[in-house]
Amino acid sequence: MSARTALITGGTSGIGKATAKVLHRRGYQVAVTGQRPESVARARADLPEDVLVLRADARSLADTDRVVSEIREQFGTLTTLFLNAGVNRPSTLDAADEAAFDDAFTVNTKGQYFTLVKTLPLLPDGASIIVTVGIGATRSLTGNSITAGSRGAWLAMIPTLALELAPRRIRINAVSPGFTDTPMVRTSPDKTPDEVATMVATIAANNPFGRLGRPEDVAETVAFLASDGAAYITGQQIVVAGGAGLAV
């Protein structure tokens, strides 16, 4: 493949935006999507001016169709698809909320799945697909069952999808960040800023590397999976968590 192009869903902040910057520096034509107007506006100001920033709601298949049409018009093909859009819907079992459950699975599972379905005609042989899952899908985090299930569904699908796509040498892999210093981690509707700061400091202190992940840590892993250096890797999960969860 000659021209390298990438679509990053959930690419207007945090890990997605960091990945957009890394791939752009490596010569990719990049498009990102985001749902919140303020996030989209900041991305347009922060990212290089030739990065295509599109407002789109992962819940809306009509929005996805519009994004795909724009990518086809601007790029023609898509060599990298980073399915990163997601929501966190914390809830313990005794406080189960049907609306939160539906929203998590609509965005994290259905929305990302149909983004793949709809972009598939744009993917040339040898393209790379990367899906954000997260360590919560395989490690216990109190109140995380809904988010973990909606993200972890991808770990069940990826092996089958990898074999379906293998005849075209299209690779699909998961990247699973640990606690990463992003706006999502720094924002909590039920905690004050001081409580959030204390929580973040505690998480960092308990990590073997003594810190939270940085968005760039995950972005570099995504860039590797998108590259020719990962041409023989498919159906796998790479955990980017500084050793979190390894202790017995």
Helix amount: 40-55%
Order of helices and strands: EHEHEHEHEHEHHHE
Question: Any idea what the radius of gyration is?
Answer: 17 Å
The assigned CATH architecture is 3-Layer(aba) Sandwich
CATH topology: Rossmann fold
* Helical run tally: 8
Give the low-confidence spans. none
Q: What is the residue-averaged pLDDT?
A: 94
> Which geometry do the CA atoms define?
globular
Strand content: 5-15%
Total number of beta strands: 7
Distance between the termini: 44 Å
Structural class: alpha/beta
Let me know the largest β-sheet.
7 strands, parallel
- Overall number of domains: 1
CATH superfamily: NAD(P)-binding Rossmann-like Domain
CATH class: Alpha Beta
Briefly characterize the structure.
The chain is α/β, with parallel strands linked by helices. 44% of the residues lie in helices and 14% in strands. Helix 4 links the parallel strand 4 (80-83) and strand 5 (128-132).
Structure description:
With 248 residues, the protein is an alpha/beta fold. The protein has a single domain (5-240), classed as NAD(P)-binding Rossmann-like Domain (Rossmann fold, 3-Layer(aba) Sandwich), CATH 3.40.50.720. The protein has 8 helices and 7 strands. It has helices spanning 14-25, 37-46, 61-74, 98-119, 145-165, 183-186, 193-206, 215-226, and strands at 5-9, 29-34, 52-55, 80-83, 128-132, 171-177, 237-240. It has a 7-stranded parallel beta sheet with strand order 3-2-1-4-5-6-7, sandwiched between helices. Helix 1 packs across helix 8 (215-226), helix 3 runs parallel beside helix 4 and helix 4 runs parallel beside helix 5. The protein is globular, with a radius of gyration of 17 Å.
